């Protein structure tokens, strides 16, 4: 019987994480990023080399904060919803909206997102 190897984190996630570490204004070491994100340096190293799967929601959120990655970007790269998306899904109509959106083609989702962005900006201005 062979041991199950952990699923590798998606390449876009690993690339974004590496890029953010390389471009961080403080030039943080792997050890310092791990310390600030409350991860072990070994785990972060394994993650960056593709020997670990996607980390927990809390760990991704910590990495976004530590590395100044825009909120949600690392979650998107990981193919995982962030807390805001999960909270929306838990709302009464959230699940229905998600089911409608789930079957839409990518090009239509881009247009829908643009419409939502305009709607939110317009209504924010009215407040």
N to C succession of SSEs:
HHHHHHHH
Question: Mean pLDDT, rounded to whole units?
Answer: 90
Total helix count?
8
CATH architecture of the largest domain: Orthogonal Bundle
* CATH class membership of the largest domain: Mainly Alpha
Low-confidence stretches: none
Helix and strand composition category: mainly alpha
Helix content: 55-70%
**How many strand elements?**
0
The value of Rg in angstroms is 18 Å
- CATH topology assignment of the largest domain: 434 Repressor (Amino-terminal Domain)
Largest sheet: none
CATH level-4 homologous superfamily of the largest domain: lambda repressor-like DNA-binding domains
Distance, first to last CA: 62 Å
- Number of structural domains: 2
Beta-strand share of residues = under 5%
General form: elongated
List the helices and strands and how they pair.
Elements: H1 11-23, H2 30-36, H3 41-48, H4 57-66, H5 73-78, H6 83-90, H7 94-102, H8 106-126
Helix pairs in contact: 2-3
